[in-house]
């Protein structure tokens, strides 16, 4: 698969096995496409088989290599099945993008947040990240190499952005979890970094946010 002139090119990704959780849409899907454009062999994970197939088919149509693996990353058994299928079909993971995140929480006072919304959001972002690392890290440390990216958010460090409190707390937890894991496994040749983007115009944002809000947010970001 040949990257276009507009895509970032990283020759060292060619031939590497990359796993992207939450890869069926938004930032995760874009990450899958860019990894494949750089020659990586990509495993696309998500819970919706139809959405996964769209990403896998698009990569294949462009000459890349990808497989789809459904699974809920809040379930350790499902994450283990993901890892095992990747190892069987592609080989051991060398790049892991633990990007899955979700939950039902909506903006509002913390006292009004239903317990179920708190639990689903913390599980969907923080617990899912923990379980993914728990499953994939032993193999990487044993092999003495690997690169891991986790997904936080600017909401993890900037209150007042209008994000739900459970989401902010979960993403702040992802930041500290990442720092702790990086300190544990760096000596084993495994790099662990965390991304914390501001608002990205994903399909979900386009669907739920008003045009006025989108324009206001875009105007507040210099780039």
Any idea what the shape is?
A: globular
Query: How much helix is in the residues?
Result: 40-55%
According to DSSP, the number of beta strands is 6
Distance between the termini: 30 Å
Major sheet summary line = 6 strands, parallel
Strand order of the largest sheet: 3-2-1-4-5-6
Give a short synopsis of this structure.
The chain has 223 residues and is α/β, with parallel strands linked by helices.
Describe the structure.
With 223 residues, the protein is of the alpha/beta class. The chain is 47% helix and 15% strand. Strands 3-2-1-4-5-6 form a 6-stranded parallel beta sheet, with helices on both faces. Helix 1 links the parallel strand 1 and strand 2. The radius of gyration is 17 Å and the shape is globular. The protein starts with 16 loop residues before the first strand and ends with a helix.
């Amino acid at each position: 698969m040949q990257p276009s002139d507009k895509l970032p090119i990283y020759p060292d990704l060619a031939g590497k096995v990359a796993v992207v959780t939450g890869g069926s849409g938004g930032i995760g899907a874009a990450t899958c496409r860019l990894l494949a454009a750089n020659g990586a062999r990509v495993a696309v994970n998500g819970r919706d088989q139809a959405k996964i197939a769209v990403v896998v088919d698009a990569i294949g149509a462009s000459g890349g290599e990808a497989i789809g693996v459904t699974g809920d990353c809040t379930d350790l058994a499902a994450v283990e099945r993901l890892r095992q299928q990747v190892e069987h079909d592609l080989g051991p993971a060398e790049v892991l993008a633990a990007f899955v995140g979700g939950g039902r929480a909506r903006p509002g006072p913390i006292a009004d947040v239903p317990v179920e919304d708190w639990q689903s959001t913390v599980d969907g972002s923080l617990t899912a990240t923990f379980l993914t690392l728990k499953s994939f890290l032993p193999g990487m440390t044993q092999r003495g190499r690997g690169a891991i990216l986790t997904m936080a958010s600017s909401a993890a460090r900037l209150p007042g952005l209008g994000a739900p409190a459970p989401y902010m707390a979960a993403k702040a937890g992802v930041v500290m979890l990442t720092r702790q894991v990086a300190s544990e496994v760096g000596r084993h040749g495994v790099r662990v970094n965390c991304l914390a983007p501001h608002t990205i115009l994903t399909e979900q944002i386009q669907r739920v946010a008003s045009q006025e809000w989108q324009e206001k947010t875009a105007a507040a970001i210099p780039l």
